[in-house]
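Need the bound structure for adenosine-5'-diphosphate, inputs here:
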Amino acid sequence: MGMVGFYAGSFDPFTNGHLAIVKKSAKCFDKVVIGIGYNADKQERIDKNEMKSAIEKAIAEENLNNVEVVLYTGLTVDKAKECNTDILIRGLRNGTDYEYEENISEVNEKIAGMDTCYFRAGTLGYLSSSIVMELFNNNKPIDEFVPKAVAELLYSIK
Ligand code: ADP
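Answer from helper R.:
Posting the output first, comments after.
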């Protein structure tokens, strides 16, 4: 069945930075599962089911045929196991991301034997979901920062 990688995140919203990580990982893994993690006690900024559809559109537009999207709640390692993988994918923008990610990765290895594969953000490392929302909430265009389907979703809820 080949090598599967599980790319977990809040993706609230999914940005071009996230898409770049998906593209890189789709080249390295036979299959990539994007896991939109949500918390029942914490409302997401954008409806998670609508975000899932927008991400599906974005990956179809890029012809990423080995990528799928799932929603999950609870521990990332549990969902990753359910998706038949023991490799998590994360993106690194800078040293702060690295330090944050390393703690989580270490715990995931300890509790579940799950390893983490990091991909570099490179030139899109300045982008974050919160920056996109800050611009959007202040009526600035966000088209250059998110995939077309995500921009359409955002403008549709405005
Ligand atoms: P979380 O809430 O789990 O940190 P995010 O949706 O913010 O979820 O990010 C998911 C993953 O994508 C994280 O590994 C994060 O470092 C990475 N990421 C976020 N923005 C970018 C970007 N611009 N370029 C590359 N990776 C990114």
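Comments: The mean pLDDT is 97. The pocket of adenosine-5'-diphosphate is lined by residues 9-11, 15, 17-18, 21, 90-91, 93, 97, 121, 124-125, 127-129 (CB under 6 Å).
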